[in-house]
Amino acid sequence: MLLLxxxxxxxxxxxxxxxxxxxxxINTWFLNQAFESGTDKTETYKNTYRNYQIExxxxxxxxxxxxxxxxxxxxxxxxxxxxxxxxxxxxxxxxGSATASKWKILRLKEKETWVVQTIDGKDVELHMKD
Length: 130
Description:
With 130 residues, this protein is mostly beta strands. It has a single domain (6-129), classed as Lipocalin, CATH 2.40.128. Helix content is 9%, strand content 56%. It has helices spanning 21-25, 42-48, and strands at 6-7, 16-17, 27-36, 39-40, 49-56, 61-68, 72-82, 88-93, 101-108, 112-119, 122-129. An eight-stranded antiparallel β-barrel has the order 3-5-6-7-8-9-10-11.
């Protein structure tokens, strides 16, 4: 029997995982917490991006959905890939209407991920759960 073990590349873990990075990334993630410069901004982000979710799919596609300020429905689809060193997830939207985005991965567990994304010119640490 061959056992595949993935060592940690992420500052917040996990230190060791029996699942591949791709297997851990593929999920439907929901916003749990948001921080700007260490300050908890969860309520602000949950009100601005109400019901935020991103589905990262095994076929290298993704879908983001939320309701902007609880009024305007937003949906984005596109493709995703890991950076060559697997420390960043890169998202490229379909149709060219939105700009590509990157998530620096801080933690990547099967049911929890922490990433840093630039939103409105600010680095925001997002903690998401499935």
